[in-house]
Amino acid sequence: ARPLDAFIGAADPQVYDLELAPDWHQIALYNTGAAKAVVSTAISGDRTENAVGLDPKAQYYAYEFWTDTYLGRLPGTERIQRELNPNCCAMISLRKVQTHPQVISTDRHILQGWVDLADVRWDAEAKTLTGTAHVIGGDPFKIVLADNGAKALSAEATGGRCEIKAHPVAGLSCLTLSADANADVRWTVKYR
User: Are residues 87 and 12 in contact, defined by beta-carbon separation less than 8 angstroms?
Assistant: First the structure.
């Protein structure tokens, strides 16, 4: 992870960016101070000036891991900010909005899909989003999906059980996978 605010006079860097893919960054915001404070970074701009350096013309989904909070669909010109207590951290998955349904977060690992998901693919002809999840036996695993104008109709799982339902935020869905023992569960969500 690269500190983004190291060159703007911060005594202790508080903003870190880990690029997992060109359109997917994990942003860690730390409050290293002794009082509650707002910690922030810009989505676009010069990386040496506390910015992630992404496309200002694009839009990005932001999802915070520790609080399981959808932060919104943000323009590339936006700042990401969180008010944090002393010695606390926010871990935000920042993903470029696609033209089809996509994964925006999971609840298994702080990298929100990088470690716990594999082979995630959109099939435009079949209108399905598929992938494999590393599921821990007896512990339901949640995947948050952005529907991006489509409607999730059904879900199937091989090697485990699944349930698809609407997220409390309109336009998002939650896929919950479960298995009796640790398993790699292959999942498919059908859209229209």
Answer: no
The DSSP symbol for 123 reads E
Per the CB < 8 A criterion, the answer to whether 73 and 93 are in contact is no
**Interatomic CA distance for residues 168 and 66, integer angstroms:** 17
d(CA 116, CA 45): 30
pLDDT, mean of residues 87-101: 98
Please state whether the predicted TM-score (pTM) of the whole model is above 0.90.
Answer: yes
User: Which pLDDT score, from 0 to 100, does residue 9 have?
Assistant: 83
157 three-class SS: strand
Longest dimension (CA), the chain: 54
| CA dihedral (97, 101, 102, 104) positive or negative | positive
**Burial, 172: exposed, middle or buried (Cβ in 10 Å; 0-12, 13-18, 19+)?**
buried
